[in-house]
Design a protein that fits this description.
homodimer; 147 residues; alpha+beta; Arc Repressor Mutant, subunit A; Dna Ligase, domain 1; 2 domains; three-stranded mixed beta sheet; 5 helices; DNA-binding
DNA sequence: ATGACTGCAAATACTTTGCACATGT
DNA sequence: ACATGTGCAAAGTATTTGCAGTCAT
């Protein structure tokens, strides 16, 4: 996997905005998370990053993920106390965790439903994030599928 | 705080169903969580339990909480990677975490909205849990209020 | 007596941090 | 040269576990 010209630029611009440098490590981590559709954990991102850069360390992966979060290029997803997962999809949406296969999938959340959710709170409440997570079993999901 | 006659019986019955014993420790932990309205963490439950039973250990509190979860007398609430919180409210509802005061409050979730949420998933999906968490600032919330 | 429960201390899992070295401008 | 970033190893936090001793029936 290689960083596309386009993503490369997105990264550089976002880092620039915060006065941060584009480094090879950040490029690698961003290329991994930016193209991942399976909500990988830090460990999984570490493993995939090492394929592109065998010398990268787990601590650096965590550092880079932190930086990418600050740049708002990626997001975290948490399911109970399991390892934090990372994804490039920034639009408000829900998640489904399949107990059978262990996979996490995005669930589309229509805008009107999203706003109905925030209306559950007193009007004067400022909401900074909404997290909607489902858990259960997907039909026909393989046992322990990996993307 | 003392275990009410009524809750005592609820506990004994629920434990009985799983062939488990009612112990003083379980009674204490259940009396703490069962009457708490502030979604305490294991540490907070430990502190409150020690007021009734100074010799109780944190490990036992965790053991008891695990048992109470199995009996379906209490539930867990997780906010990102923060300490797990426990609550006696078993009805489907949402949670709001106030960044200013640190308090967690229940948010009523109307039944029709709850079912609209589960309809986001393919009909054949079996859903075992729905978690809806808000984060933000409550109006007029004190700094670091404790219930 | 037997099986279940407690509570200590150690282990675990995930994540963060301090710091010496490396790197880019 | 200077500020920033990397990566190792160590620390930290929340939770779980092994096990010897204790308790209830």
């Amino acid at each position: 996997m290689q960083v596309s010209e386009e993503n490369q630029q997105t990264l550089t611009q976002a880092l620039d905005k915060l006065g941060l440098r584009s480094t090879r490590q950040r490029e690698v981590v961003y290329s991994v998370v930016g193209t991942a559709k399976d909500h990988p954990t830090a460990d999984e991102i570490f493993a995939r990053s090492r394929q592109q850069m065998p010398t990268i360390s787990l601590a650096t992966v965590y550092n880079c993920l932190e930086t990418l979060l600050e740049c708002e290029l990626i997001r975290q997803v948490n399911f109970e106390r399991e390892s934090t997962r990372y994804e490039p999809n920034l639009k408000p949406h829900a998640h489904f965790y399949c107990d059978k296969s262990g996979q996490v999938v995005d669930v589309h959340l229509p805008e009107d439903l999203y706003s109905r959710l925030t209306e559950l709170l007193p009007a004067s409440t400022s909401v900074s994030s909404v997290e909607l997570n489902f858990r259960g079993k997907l039909p026909n999901s393989p046992e322990n599928h990996q993307n």
